[in-house]
Amino acid sequence: AYRENFGIEPGGQLRHATPYQRIVWGADDADTIRRNFDVMVRFIDDGEAGLKSNAERAFLLPEPESAIVFADRVFALRQWGPSKTIYRHLLASEPENAEWTYRLGVAETWSGNPARGLELLQTALDIGLASAPLYLARCEALLFLGRADQAAANARFALEMDPGNFDAAMRLGVVFETHGCFAEASRWVKHAASLRPDSSETRRYLES
């Protein structure tokens, strides 16, 4: 049926499928593949617009874990619009889930609504999630809102919890550069470079 309907051999490869096939293959039993194959095809063929409509479809699948796997994959791909749709639906049935609240906050921030993103991240913190990624996400939302001092404080919290956090070190560099403290900015970027020596981001900054 796959050959007839989609023009590929079973086990073959859809055009541009490589980044997305984990949405389907993450749980590779036959029933899961049959249920999710069409979702992946529409995602690839229609792009983000197609995925937004299929984000709703994810919740019609028999097993709730299928929707969660789908949500995780879409979030990892940084598809913020579909991520918001999926995590709103998940939170409707489990509003105290701090991880899903955090992820919705990240999606809101990066899709152009950092004020709402910051509210959700604070809610996740109040529920009990205290992690380096959460503090880094708060830092990013605060930077978007122009609240650099608070952003720096959250980046420092992230580094205290995870001293090897490259992104937190880079955000501190950005904050200090914004304040015109170029020596301190350079110090943090060099620290980030020590954490990730092959980073083109730090190399461009230090060579500029």
Number of strands: 0
Report the radius of gyration as a whole number of Å.
Answer: 20 Å
Helix count, DSSP H or I runs of 4 or more residues:
12
Whole-number mean pLDDT: 78
Order of helices and strands: HHHHHHHHHHHH
The chain-level structural class is mainly alpha
* Shape label: elongated
Low-confidence runs: 1-28
Task: Looking at this protein, list some descriptive labels.
single chain; elongated; 208 residues; 12 helices; 74% helix; mainly alpha; disordered N terminus
Molecular structure report:
Helix 5 packs antiparallel against helix 6 (98-110) and helix 6 packs antiparallel against helix 7 (114-127). The radius of gyration is 20 Å and the shape is elongated. It is mainly α and 208 residues long. 74% of the residues lie in helices and 0% in strands. It has helices at 2-6, 22-25, 30-57, 64-76, 80-93, 98-110, 114-127, 132-144, 148-161, 166-178, 182-195, 200-207. It contains twelve helices and no strands.
